[in-house]
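Case 391 in the screening queue. Each case pairs one protein sequence with one candidate compound; here the compound is pyridoxal-5'-phosphate. For every case the pipeline is the same: read the inputs, emit a complex structure as tokens, and attach any notable structural observations.

Predict complex for case 391.
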Amino acid sequence: MRLSGRVGRIQESATLRVARRALELKAQGVDLVDFGAGEPDFASPPCAVAAATHALQSGFTKYTAIAGIPELRQALAARYAREFGAPWGAAETLITVGGKGALFESALALFEEGQEVVTHTPTWVSFVEQIRFAGADVVEVPTDGAEGFAIRAEPIVNALTPRTRAVILNSPCNPTGGVIEPGDRRRIVEACAARDILVISDETYERFVYDGFAAGSAAELAAEYPETVVVVGSFSKTYAMTGWRLGYLLGPRELVDAACRIQGHATSNPTSFAMKGALAALEGAEADVEAMIAEYALRRDLLIPRLNALPGVCCAAPKGAFYAFPDVSACLGPRFATPTELAERLLEEEAVAIVAGEAFGSDRHVRISFACSRASLEEGMSRMARFFAKR
Ligand code: PLP
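Case 391 output:
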């Protein structure tokens, strides 16, 4: 098969590969502990399920406007205006097929050969692949585990060149749990605005922050820098609605229109009745979200000390998201020389799925998702203790 050069530039999502192998083992009847998936174990909010069911039963099953149903666009724009003073209306708000859809359409609408896109690393796999797919070069700015992978302005601003088209920020960050302080975000946006560079802020994990950290949003700067700030969000994690495939893009009208044009030829509208469910979640699921945040905080507090008790493993408590990103470099050696080998052996020997850091650009770390029950965390950590004791 002669495939396009374009597709040759991207690789299979490493996180999805682990998920596939984990599914294979499960199908074989293996009692798997899955720390691999970035997927909440909670049920979707009942109000969302009821609204989507009602929409289905009442025949809301046709194509909608490509950009999504107007009332959801309006409700999202209103939320960003109310909470962050953002200037966007429904026309600057696009409903997409997952946050991934919003990012992908933005990449295709904005990036081209010869341009650079700056992001911080370790980073979520799809940013890198989408940038490459669009033809641009990725410029990775390291964040430091010793300072909790904080996303700092200075190294990002220093990485800007005349070729830079955009900076992608992801706070809280998948996989590191690192966050950006409002002052750093402002400095990056200011520097980018002065150079006609976009700042795409992926806020998929915005609600999952701990220890009283206020995540804020790049949307707070959108009124001041309307041509610079782009926000991407998702219903997947906040509302435990991964399978519904709904995300969104808010930003300059020209970009939203261009992304919508792409959407019109790629997917058309996101699923009609799912959007009705998302609207209900946005308007009525706050208590569900708060319960999930509280539960993630408890899981984090349970997991981190257990990780640090493993020989050679060092893990700071993540400030946000629902991943621990321990440094395992001190336990690499003859038994497993790389995080990938560690992850593979752990999966085969103890049926615990984790994701090797290489997937995110680190050869020192592994990612452990705590979007699973406390019982799974206990069981998985017992297995990991046994596995590490064997060295
Ligand atoms: N952004 C980040 C950083 C993610 O981790 C994910 C999913 O894992 C997404 C975006 C996209 O999520 P979805 O397409 O389910 O909305």
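Case 391 observations:
- The CA atoms of residues 332 and 338 lie 6 Å apart.
- The pocket of pyridoxal-5'-phosphate is lined by residues 38, 98-100, 124, 170, 174, 202, 204, 234, 236, 242, 247 (CB under 6 Å).
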